[in-house]
């Protein structure tokens, strides 16, 4: 077989592999809506919707189309299912040219409450896709709380922030710059992109009490590093830590040496703490946070431990210079914590033990060790 034949056969197989991504079942579901709308309207919307899934399309366009489906075809069961499945569909993505998807960061979209809180699938090649794709599947049947939040912020609140953002006008945001992950009051104010580019967590502190997580500094490369393709510079994270970022003091005297053979976490100590009254929180409110200041500098504490475990595993690659064994162990521990479903001291203990740090003090800053017994 000639090299030319092999090339075209490979190109054809890649084209076929991507067809299911560019033409998901949702397109056919839109065409098949019969509960509302005028003749041919469903087919017209379906035909135009395909372009919203192309790699170059603004991700906010997909949300506008979801709104249009319901506005034009009504809110019958078939229309709602088609709209939700379309909003959740994976946008075309080429992992050979970029490593992260682009997500809409406009908190006003979608406007229809029936599809707010639905989040998209991402390419399986993206780090953390297992967390996001599981959450996406859940959101199609039970959308997440999303008042005042963009899709990017909802995704971050569910533990996935490995993305870049774009608003409805096409303005690009920094990697993972989904702003504050949304507040209980529904304000969802976004942090400035400038803060994200330096790794500073300062801009999120004023709203930390209402936020589940903050990914304003989730871009662990500075703007300059991202432009040159360089891996994360630890200098910006260290600078954030030196400004008094919460958690820096709690890592004093800690060690990155795991008791697990062959596991090297490099520059980081991947342990988790579970404390009440962390900055911006009520004195009785317990949250999880990474103990290592390099990681806590770019991640707000969270009620959901899966947000912190996901961030730690990401940072082993981004800035910690950990070996592959450490990364593998982290992924296994992340799955273990997700399966446990607990949110107390035992959760932090289970994580620390799984990574080879059994006996780590989970309230190094003092205060009660665990939530009160029921």
- Unreliable stretches covering 5 or more consecutive residues: 6-20, 177-254
Radius of gyration: 22 Å
Largest sheet: 2 strands, parallel
- The neighbouring-strand order within the major sheet is 1-2
Question: How much helix is in the residues?
Answer: 25-40%
What class do helices, strands and sheet pairing give?
A: mainly alpha
Task: Describe this structure as you would to a colleague.
The chain has 374 residues and is mainly alpha-helical. The protein is built from 14 helices and four strands. The strands form two sheets. It has a two-stranded parallel sheet with strand order 1-2. A two-stranded antiparallel sheet has the order 3-4. It is elongated, with a radius of gyration of 22 Å. The protein starts with a helix and ends in a 20-residue tail after the last helix. The model is unreliable at 6-20 and 177-254 (pLDDT under 50).
Descriptive keywords:
about 375 residues; mainly alpha; two-stranded parallel ribbon; two-stranded antiparallel sheet; 14 helices; elongated
Give the structure's gist in a few sentences.
This protein has 374 residues and is mainly alpha-helical. It has 14 helices and four strands.
Fold blueprint:
Elements: H1 3-22, H2 25-31, H3 41-49, H4 59-73, H5 77-88, E1 102-104, H6 129-141, H7 151-157, E2 164-166, H8 193-198, H9 223-228, H10 234-242, E3 272-276, E4 286-290, H11 293-296, H12 305-318, H13 324-340, H14 345-354
Parallel strand pairs: 1-2
Antiparallel strand pairs: 3-4
Helix pairs in contact: 2-3, 2-5, 3-4, 4-5, 5-6, 12-13, 13-14
């Amino acid at each position: 077989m000639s090299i030319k034949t092999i090339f075209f056969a490979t190109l054809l197989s890649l084209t076929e592999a991507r067809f299911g991504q560019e033409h998901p079942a949702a397109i056919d579901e839109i065409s098949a809506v019969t509960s509302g709308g005028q003749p041919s309207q469903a087919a017209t919307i379906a035909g135009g919707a395909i372009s919203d899934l192309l790699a170059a399309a603004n991700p906010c366009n997909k949300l506008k189309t979801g709104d249009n489906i319901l506005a034009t075809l009504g809110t019958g069961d078939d229309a709602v299912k088609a709209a939700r499945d379309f909003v959740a569909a994976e946008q075309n993505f080429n992992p050979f040219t970029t490593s992260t998807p682009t997500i809409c960061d406009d908190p006003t979209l979608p406007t229809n409450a029936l599809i707010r809180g639905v989040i998209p699938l991402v390419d399986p090649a993206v780090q953390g896709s297992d967390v996001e794709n599981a959450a996406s599947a859940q959101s199609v049947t039970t959308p997440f709380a999303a008042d005042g939040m963009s899709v990017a912020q909802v995704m971050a609140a569910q533990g996935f922030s490995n993305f870049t953002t774009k608003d409805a006008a096409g303005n690009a945001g920094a990697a993972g710059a989904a702003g504050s992950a949304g507040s209980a009051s529904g304000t969802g104010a976004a942090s400035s992109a400038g803060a994200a580019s330096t790794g500073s967590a300062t801009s999120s502190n004023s709203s930390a009490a209402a936020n589940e997580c903050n990914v304003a500094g989730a871009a662990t490369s500075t703007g300059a590093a991202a432009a040159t393709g360089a891996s994360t510079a630890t200098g910006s994270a260290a600078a954030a830590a030196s400004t008094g970022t919460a958690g820096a003091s709690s890592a004093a005297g800690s060690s990155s040496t795991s008791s697990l053979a062959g596991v090297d976490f490099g520059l980081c100590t991947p342990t988790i703490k579970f404390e009440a009254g962390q900055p911006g929180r009520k004195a009785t409110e317990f949250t999880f946070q990474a103990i290592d200041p390099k990681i806590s500098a770019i991640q707000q504490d969270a009620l959901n431990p899966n947000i912190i475990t996901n961030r730690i595993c990401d940072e082993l690659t981004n800035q910690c210079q950990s070996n592959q064994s450490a990364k593998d162990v982290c992924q296994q521990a992340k799955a273990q914590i997700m399966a446990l479903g607990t949110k107390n001291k035992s959760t932090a203990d289970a994580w620390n033990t799984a990574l080879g740090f059994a006996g780590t003090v989970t309230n190094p800053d003092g205060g009660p060790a665990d939530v009160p017994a029921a």
